[in-house]
């Protein structure tokens, strides 16, 4: 039996399935996403989902996954999909009854991508005639939730248990507060969202539910610390996000213990410029906190040394989300110059302005870093130029969230430790 992945992209769902010991067949049109999938060892049919027939999958499909392109609906775009929403709803009604009115509806759409959100219903209708699939999982930007509720009504009439709602990827161990509309449906079990494993503030086990760890920060995911939580710098001025002294004055034993575990030290401007001139490695090496392995001395800072705290700015727009490295990222938007993510520095130094060292310039995030913040492994084989890689990453489903959603339908145990992030 086959798992069919419509609009498979670079493999967010497929990577999650591989960790769970299952393989899918992905349908994807984008050339570079297909090449990324091939490099990752994933099965792919390069095709236009809107033109590919459903009959090859009838009689052999256990699960359907669908993440239609979100550009028509996304906050990062013109959002013409919202204007086309009545046409998309009509397409779902027609396709659920076996009527193909897509050509006429597409001609009326303001964005030709809008109608792609109705395509999964064409496949589901054909499969349902054969009593398939056993389960369905779908994902899109939050504004598509009303459409998922329409799908839910159709699926319930066909005998499925269905749940729809908005989930935050950070609640499932993804280092990014990415909110998405989710549809879960099953013929054999009660559809319900997975239990969150993380929270903004850690929560102990109680009568109301299991314990939840604190949200995973960007620093932790990228390996910018030597412990399970970022360790603040031992110099005056606090940790990577600024703040008070990490240890009280005179707490020499605590400082020594922290140094043994590995401590944060900010890059100086000179080190930053030297690293950039040498062209060494990804931006994290140029601008991120250095890690001193256990037993090695850290850089010595005086109380008057400038102290940089690094944050990630989600785009170049005035209302861009800016998050400190000790927090999860905001939703990563790519695919347009205005949506470039950059590391930006700030200082908490008390030196007079005339004695301040030059502030480091913003540095663009690397594709490897962005992939890790989407919960892909650091070594994931992204293909294409920089823009093509970022476009794939921004459109991908975070694999760690995908695994939480898929594991119950596959009756597979899910171990979050199987999702390694930083190398």
Overview of this protein structure:
This protein is of the alpha/beta class. It has 2 domains: 2-202 and 386-418, Vaccinia Virus protein VP39 (Rossmann fold, 3-Layer(aba) Sandwich), CATH 3.40.50.150; 218-373, no CATH class. Helices cover 29% and strands 16% of the residues. The protein has helices at 12-19, 31-39, 80-96, 102-108, 119-128, 145-157, 218-221, 252-261, 269-278, 283-287, 367-373, 386-395, 399-410; strands spanning 2-6, 24-28, 43-46, 61-66, 135-140, 161-168, 179-186, 198-199, 213-214, 264-265, 290-291, 308-313, 322-324, 342-347, 363-364. Strands 3-2-1-4-5-7-6 form a 7-stranded mixed β-sheet, sandwiched between helices. Strands 13-12-14-15 form a 4-stranded antiparallel β-sheet. Helix 1 links the parallel strand 1 and strand 2. The relative contact order is 0.14.
Fold blueprint:
Elements: E1 2-6, H1 12-19, E2 24-28, H2 31-39, E3 43-46, E4 61-66, H3 80-96, H4 102-108, H5 119-128, E5 135-140, H6 145-157, E6 161-168, E7 179-186, E8 198-199, E9 213-214, H7 218-221, H8 252-261, E10 264-265, H9 269-278, H10 283-287, E11 290-291, E12 308-313, E13 322-324, E14 342-347, E15 363-364, H11 367-373, H12 386-395, H13 399-410
Helix pairs in contact: 1-13, 3-4, 3-6
């Amino acid at each position: 039996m086959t798992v069919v992945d419509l609009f498979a992209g670079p493999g967010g769902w497929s990577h999650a399935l591989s960790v769970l010991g299952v393989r899918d067949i992905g349908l994807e049109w984008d050339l570079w996403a297909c090449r990324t999938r091939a490099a990752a060892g994933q099965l792919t049919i390069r095709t236009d989902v809107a033109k590919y027939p459903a009959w090859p999958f009838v009689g052999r499909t256990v699960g359907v996954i669908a993440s239609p392109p979100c550009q028509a609906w996304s906050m990062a775009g013109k959002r013409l999909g919202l204007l086309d929403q009545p046409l998309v709803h009509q397409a779902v009604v027609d396709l659920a009854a076996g009527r193909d009115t897509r050509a006429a509806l597409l001609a009326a759409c303001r964005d030709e991508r809008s109608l792609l959100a109705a395509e999964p219903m064409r496949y589901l209708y054909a499969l349902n005639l054969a009593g398939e699939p056993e389960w369905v999982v779908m994902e899109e930007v939050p504004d598509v939730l009303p459409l998922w509720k329409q799908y839910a009504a159709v699926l319930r009439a066909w005998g499925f248990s269905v749940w729809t709602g908005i989930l935050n990827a950070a609640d499932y161990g993804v280092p990014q507060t990415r909110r998405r509309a989710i549809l879960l449906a099953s013929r054999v079990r009660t559809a319900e969202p997975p239990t969150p494993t993380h929270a903004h503030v850690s929560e102990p086990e109680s009568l109301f539910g299991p314990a939840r760890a604190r949200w995973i920060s960007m620093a932790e995911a990228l390996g910018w610390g030597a412990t399970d939580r970022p360790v603040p710098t031992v110099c005056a001025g606090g940790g990577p996000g600024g703040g008070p002294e990490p240890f009280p004055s005179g707490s020499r034993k605590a400082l020594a213990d922290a140094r043994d575990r590995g401590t944060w030290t900010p890059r100086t401007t000179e080190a930053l410029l030297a690293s950039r001139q040498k062209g060494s490695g990804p931006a994290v090496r140029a601008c991120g906190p250095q890690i001193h392995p256990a037993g090695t001395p850290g850089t010595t800072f005086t109380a008057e040394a400038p102290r940089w705290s690094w944050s990630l700015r989600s785009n170049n727009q005035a209302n861009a989300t800016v998050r400190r490295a000790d927090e999860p990222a905001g939703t990563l938007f790519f695919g347009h110059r205005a949506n470039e993510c950059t590391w930006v520095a700030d200082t908490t130094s008390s030196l007079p302005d005339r004695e301040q060292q030059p502030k480091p310039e913003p540095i663009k995030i690397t594709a490897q870093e962005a992939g890790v913040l989407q919960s892909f492994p650091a070594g994931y084989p992204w293909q294409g130029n920089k823009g093509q890689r970022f476009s794939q990453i921004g459109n991908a489903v975070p694999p760690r969230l995908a695994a939480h959603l898929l594991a119950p339908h596959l009756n597979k145990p899910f171990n979050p430790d199987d999702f390694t992030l930083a190398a």
